[in-house]
Amino acid sequence: MHDFSSRSGEFRTRRGKWRYDDDEPTSVKRGRRRALPSIEEFDTTDGLPEGDRWSTWDQSIPTQRGPRPHPGWLVTDLAAVDTELGILKTGKEADVFLIRRGVPGGRSCLLAAKRYRDPGHRMFHRDSGYLEGRRVRESRVNRAVASRSAFGREAIAGQWANAEFSALARLYAAGIPVPYPAQILDTELLLEFIGSADGTAAPRLAETRPDPAALAGLWDQLVQALTALARDGLAHGDLSAYNLLVHDGRLVMIDLPQVVDVIANPRGAWYLTRDAENIGRWFTARGLSGVSPEPADLADLLRREALLDP
Question: Of the listed 255, 261, 275, 297, which one is catalytic?
Fold first, then answer.
């Protein structure tokens, strides 16, 4: 969708000059009024500095916005402007940018804009396994996804973005430590920025060197988060120390486009086990000891919580 605010009520005269409806003579002798320009002629950045755009909040329908109540820090004013401040992360499937959304002269917030790449540049790795158990109502779409046709790849892109947004909304509402999903528009997700007010992103777990006490505390947080995830019938699907953030001692789970329904997916138990073993190895290598459950026992615990094992 596009923002009509900057040219509301305008049209182009025969001489190509923009004028307002109120200024246009109404006499038919002056000639017939030309039709309004097509929506493609409007620009969401019209009247703004290069790199800025009007807030896209009003372009997402209610179901494409995060769980209510919306957090107090989130700017939802229609007069707000999104300013892109730089890139936070590049990946095979998507890039993440830092956005400041603020009302000129008023309050603002920082958001992480995760943008999935266009079909020609998207490189979803091993996506077939993750997509098992995901179905849509239209059989034509399911067939296209299975055949990986051009239309099918486009459908897969939408599935990834929507799957991540839905998972984040579901997990956030359940109290699991994930970024608040502010909104989704096409294949762009706007998420809570995890980091400091000056735009410094929180480090990934892999980039930290916690002492023994801090390591045990992070492990405890992780076990609680993964247990809650398993009880909800889900597995992260690609869990590692690279998609966990540490901010002020708090562990936050990110990157969930491949979230797996462990009941619907035939390999659900395998993904659950792989997540536990991958992250368990990282903690073990950092010297974690004297905790319960131990890393070697995490997979069994998660399968029981997901009711996959007796």
Answer: 255
CA dist 12 and 17 (Å) reads: 6
Asked if omega into 266 is within 30° of 0 (cis), the reply is no
Least Cα distance to 262 among 232, 239, 234, 229 occurs for 234
pLDDT digits 0-9 by tens, 90-134: 887 889 999 999 999 999 999 999 998 765 544 444 454 444 544
Catalytic residue among 3, 82, 238, 261: 238
**pTM to 2 decimals?**
0.75
- CA–CA separation, 125 and 130 (whole Å): 10
Instruction: Determine whether 255 is an active site residue.
Output: yes
Q: Which amino acid is at 301?
A: L
**275 belongs to the catalytic site:** no
